[in-house]
Amino acid sequence: MKVGMKAVAYACLTICFIILACGTVASVKPMGAGNKALVFSVAGPVAPVYDIKMPMPYSVLRYRFGLNDNTDAYIGIHPTLGLFGNIGLDAGVTRHFARSLGWRPGISAGMSLYGFYDFVELGNARLYPELSLILSYDVSERVPVIYFGIENMFQLTKPYVVPVCLVGSEFALGSRVALSVEARWYAPTESGDDRVVDYTIIPFGQGALGFALGFTYSFSRRQQ
Amino acid sequence: MKSPRLFMFFILLLFLNCPRIISLDDFLFDPVAVDEYLRPEDLAEWGTRFIIPDSLIEAVELTSLGNRIYGFFVKGHPDSVVNNGVTILYFEGKDENINRYWVRVEYFWEMGFNVFIFDYQGYGRSEGTPSGDALFSDGHEALMYVKSRTDIDTAKIVFYGFSLGTFVTTYVAAEVAHPAATIIEAAPASATALLRDSGLLNLTGSYVVDADFDNEKRIASIGSPLFMIHSRDDDFVVFDRHAPLIWDKAVQPKEHLWIDDADHDGIQEVLGLAYNNAVIGFIRHFVID
């Protein structure tokens, strides 16, 4: 039991790093006006939990809904942070400026606000805005959507901007369910060496590489 | 599910009422239990030189939060009459147990100082489970024990903390009783700083850790001369992310020894006799002279 809890604790030590991207996956296709979906995602950098090297499981549950044909909004809660007795919420909008057509990628830009509240020690509330830009290729219904982009989270202390570079793919699993898989390079602007956590993959000595997995369930049939 | 909004509201309610189920405190501690202390085969791997005569080593048993904790009081090298008047209360780091730090006891003994070293709860033979409160209580009890000895000068007790032990050092110095001097080696600034070290966001340690480990907060209240020792090449408590945070908040009198080319626990090995001289020099200046 003790060892099990320690494994959980060790795994969760990376929570702060993981929050950089909040375990979310990118939104690359518009929902469509009035459509709704639930998105559950887990993500994090790869780090050793004893002898097993695995992405750290930071989870986010989001409720997405289409404001109009090209704009989605969402609110989310962060269950992993809740296990620590804190509250983590996020809300934001994603604007899909252009759809993928031939060599021209689809363009999506997002704006989010993450809020964290520490119930253990009151007065430690934190707010982090985030801006994202995602380019995507949606060649046909038979080919998964391929996308890449960057998310930038901002704070009032150094480092003021914490970016995450990502490349991913979204697979349709039927008309209502989609699976997203992403590789994420957390904080490539910061040295990844000599951190308290020994991240397993540190590209060019910077940041840490991780992965994200997301499941989207649409309450209406997904747009193609 | 008829209404996603109702579902989300339900989840949110659950979430808002969620107590802390897990914390990262366990990560801070890495104890190893033993049945017996100071067995040569256990000490050899840590570079122990076996230079302290058994006659100068006294086993000590204390009680902290209802648990028995164990330690050793070592009388200083008899050739160093002046230094024998000083007693080092040593707060060990997060790993292993007394065996691992016995080589450090040997350094202090060689310098002529008396030393008291003890295992926190859950370490070595000590009962219980390590936690922030447990370590603070253990540190408190250790000080009370040292102060209760009639064969030492209780006005010349010097606290020496290494790594995690520095959190206990500053706690006891600031909130229990001021020592004659305080030495902290490879000190993390706080649990918050450790958290930010693994991530980058400015969340506080209290988000994930219960232990009130905060050298940055307490260092100005230790009420004694401070000597900080830290390697610029520390690969665990990285110098730039920790040492300046403590140093800037510390009040005079304070001195520091920043060195190069030593890892987290390799300062003595790299400095050799210079380490002994630095510690002796500080203590003689602020405690003995």
Describe the structure.
The complex is a heterodimer of chains A (224) and B (289). Chain A has a single domain, classed as Porin. Chain A has three helices and eleven strands; from the N terminus they run ααββββαβββββββ. Chain A has helices at residues 2-12, 15-19, 79-83; strands at 36-49, 52-55, 58-68, 71-77, 86-98, 106-118, 126-137, 145-154, 161-172, 177-191, 206-218. Chain A is globular and about 45 Å long. In chain B, the strands form two sheets. Chain B has an eight-stranded mixed sheet, sandwiched between helices. In chain B, strand 2 (57-64) and strand 3 (67-74) form a beta hairpin. In chain B, helix 5 (132-148) crosses helix 6. Chains A and B meet through helix 1, helix 2 and helix 3 of A and helix 1, helix 2 and helix 7 of B.
Features:
heterodimer; A: mainly beta; Porin; globular; disordered N terminus; B: 289 residues; alpha/beta; two-stranded parallel sheet
Residue fraction in strands of chain A:
over 45%
Question: Can you count the helices of chain B?
Answer: 11
Low-confidence stretches of chain A: 1-21
Number of strands of chain B: 10
From the alpha carbons, calculate the radius of gyration of chain B and give it in angstroms. 20 Å
Distance between the termini of chain B: 78 Å
Average residue-wise pLDDT of chain A = 82
Give, in spatial order, the strands making up the sheet with the most strands of chain A. Answer: 1-3-4-5-6-7-8-9-10-11
Cα distance spanning the termini of chain A: 48 Å
Question: How would you sum up this structure in a few lines?
Answer:
Chain A is mostly beta strands and 224 residues long. Chain A is 9% helix and 55% strand.
Question: What is the strand and helix layout of this fold?
Answer:
The complex is a heterodimer of chains A (224) and B (289).
Chain A: H1 2-12, H2 15-19, E1 36-49, E2 52-55, E3 58-68, E4 71-77, H3 79-83, E5 86-98, E6 106-118, E7 126-137, E8 145-154, E9 161-172, E10 177-191, E11 206-218
Antiparallel strand pairs in A: 1-2, 1-3, 1-11, 3-4, 4-5, 5-6, 6-7, 7-8, 8-9, 9-10, 10-11
Chain B: H1 4-16, H2 25-28, E1 30-31, H3 40-43, E2 57-64, E3 67-74, E4 87-91, E5 95-96, H4 98-111, E6 114-118, H5 132-148, E7 157-162, H6 165-175, E8 181-185, H7 191-198, H8 215-218, E9 226-231, H9 239-249, E10 254-259, H10 267-271, H11 273-288
Parallel strand pairs in B: 1-5, 4-6, 4-7, 7-8, 8-9, 9-10
Antiparallel strand pairs in B: 2-3, 3-6
